[in-house]
Amino acid sequence: MSDSDEVTRSVASTAAEIASALNFIYKYVRHVLLFAEKTKNWYLILQLAIFMPQIIQIAQMYRKALDDFLYKVPVGDGAGPLVALRLAGFGAKWREVTEDTVVAESEFEGRRLLIIKAKGPGSTVGRPGEAAEKVIREAIAQGRRVSLMVTVDAALKLEGEDTGDVAEGVGAAIGDPGPEKIRFERVATEYNIPLRAVIVKMGMDEAILAMNQHIYKGVENAVERVKQIIRSESREGDTVVIIGVGNTVGVGQ
Amino acid sequence: MNTYQLYLLLLLVVMLIATTAMTVKQMNEIRRLQELRKRPRVVTVEECDGKTTTRDYREGDYVGLVSGQCPGGGPKRVIGIYAIKEEKKGGRSPI
Questions:
Q1: Residue ranges in chain B assigned as alpha helix (H)
Q2: Largest CB tally within 10 Å, which of A7, A81, A154, B44?
Q3: A96 bridge partner residues
Q4: Contact between A214 and A37 (Cβ < 8 Å)
Q5: Kind and range of the H or E element at A101?
Q6: In CATH, what number is assigned to the domain containing residue A84?
Q7: Do A194 and A209 share a domain, yes or no?
């Protein structure tokens, strides 16, 4: 792998993670089965038999996702980075602000947009929280007025909801409950910046499989929704930070 | 037909039904695995002078890639890649 390019290395790393998840499923099923046999607990075997269709479905989903990542096509989770790219425009100049995370500056109806996404087209989610914190501190140090932060991410839908539906709310749209999310919230609180979230809904399988046409349509709608939020919640001359959260495989800049 | 023959016939019928059911189940399983191996069609959306066209995905494509030159001289760019999901002809929801 030492002579392969960055994209191939990142895809191989994700493939290893998926293989590890599949191996965990195998080990868990084997553990329950052998433990039930050892303790002569047939209820455990019955429970395993009842859950087997769901376990097989999850394993099959991971197996399919492995192909899609190796194929290097954008996955459903790439909705956030794709919205960021669309907002920045294809001619935008991107610079790496922190590890695997890039930022571009763009103009929209008199507002200055700072757009953050993971560095593509490799398979990475980058460090959006750290990047947002850094970019906002830089902008404020330059005397700019950061009036709004918008995070865009893919979110799991419930059964009965449509794939690609766009919803908005208050707070940080990010699946990670750890360091990245707290960074958004910390910097937003510190500088009193309103934090808005836009999500594109999809199923768990759709998030890790190749992006389908419903999600693609959802991305186009999300771009328009973000523009509406910018128009209504910021004024001309303001700086707005947009963060496209998600895996950027197949989405360059 | 005596009782022994009747039981034997009954056993044969049960075995036949069980074998048929297992064969059908196996066939469904094989069909499901074949469907799993089948990859969806992935298309690449390109933009050239404001017009969008689609073509089959080629390895190496990614969103943002300059894939060629437009007749007007500008760059032809990949603006999207997505898989065409086959809609299942399912029955109506019970709800």
A1: 3-37
A2: A81
A3: A102
A4: no
A5: strand A101-108
A6: 3.40.50.1470
A7: yes
- Asked if residue A252 is part of any domain, the answer here is no
Which of A67, A212, A251 minimises the CB distance to B63? A251
- Indicate the pTM of the whole model: 0.85
Choose from A5, A90, A158, A217 for mutation: most chain B CBs within 10 A: A90
Q: Which helix (H) or strand (E) holds A129?
A: helix A128-141
CA closest to A68 among chain B residues: B39
pLDDT in tens, A177-228: 678 888 999 999 999 999 999 999 999 889 999 999 999 999 999 999 999 9
Note down the domain range covering A30.
6-70
The interface predicted TM-score of the complex, written ipTM, equals 0.86
A253 in any annotated domain: no
| Closest to B75 (Cα-Cα) out of B50, B41, B39 | B50
Comparing alpha-carbon positions, the chain A residue that sits nearest to B62 is: A250
User: Does residue A66 sit in the same domain as residue A108?
Assistant: no
Structure confidence by residue, pLDDT tens digits, B3-58: 999 999 999 999 999 999 999 988 888 887 777 667 789 999 999 888 999 999 99
Mark yes or no for CB contact B81/A120 under 8 Å. no
CB contact under 8 A, B36 and A213: no
Measure in Å the smallest separation between the Cα of A146 and chain B Cα atoms: 28
Give CA–CA dist A113/A105, Å, rounded: 6
Last-in-domain residue among A70, A103, A122: A70
Domain limit, last residue, from A43, A70, A97: A70
Distance from CA of A216 to the nearest CA of B (A): 7
Within-domain flag for A197: yes
Question: Domain check: are A63 and A80 in the same one?
Answer: no
| Interface mutation vs chain A, best among B81, B84, B86, B92, most A CBs within 10 Å | B81
- The total number of structural domains in chain A stands at 2
